[in-house]
Task: structure prediction
Amino acid sequence: MKRILLFLATNIAVLLVLSVVARLLGLDTWLAAHGQSLGGLLVWAALFGFGGAFISLAMSKWQAKMFMGVKVIGQSADPTEQWLLSVVERDARAVGVRMPEVGIFNSPQPNAFATGASRNSSLVAVSTGLLQRMNRQEVEAVLGHEMTHVANGDMVTLTLIQGVVNTFVLFLARVVGSLIDRNGRGVASGLTFFFLQIVFGILATPIVMWFSRWREFRADRGGAQLAGTDNMVAALEGLKRVQEPLPARQFAAFGIADPSAGGGLKRLFMSHPPLDERIAALRALGTH
Result:
């Protein structure tokens, strides 16, 4: 509920600011004179901005199974699969969420991710490489990290933020495009709008990525609480040695790590903080 109230308050505040700015600049008068209202544009942008984000979220589990080949574990005689189910079930009880689907995807690199439309309808998947290259204590820490993402509702929150960003990217692209191309017709108008979406989308991406990085620190703390700080640190150290991206890049923000870490401007577009920073943050908590 707090997340929804914050989301609504943010949108109302942004709308008020935009309304004041538009009035001061005379944009609302100009748009109205050309058959477009500021409110109508914003509703249109919100419909498409949030619609796209939530459709993607609703399809995320299906996409994981289809594009990453995630095999959902059912009743299995395999001891490793039984152990995975037992760890996730224990973590689900500890963090107070419904038991998610648990799956395995074929990849030689150690990785994992969580996705799903809500905290009580999620999927947690681990790679075959994770199971092969890490010991059980480290795998438990990775699972704890992903279950913290689920418990915190990070998938939904990130979608809400993406929806806000999408909305204002579309809105600003349409307004600025109307100012540049006052006729607003034909192929040139469409190309201008498309180009501005790309520009504003790139400029807005650091906002989404900042939140993504922040929640990784929080998920690391959750993994440390569920499996022990030493095990969480050991898991991150292991990832440092064999860092590779998830096979499907649309799930990068939900994975345990992103190998595209860097400095300078590149840092603004990172979905995960550098592993050294995450390890240092955990060590500052003390070991247990």
The CA atoms of residues 197 and 217 lie 31 Å apart. The two ends are 33 Å apart (CA to CA). DSSP finds eleven helices and four strands in the chain. The chain has a mean pLDDT of 81.
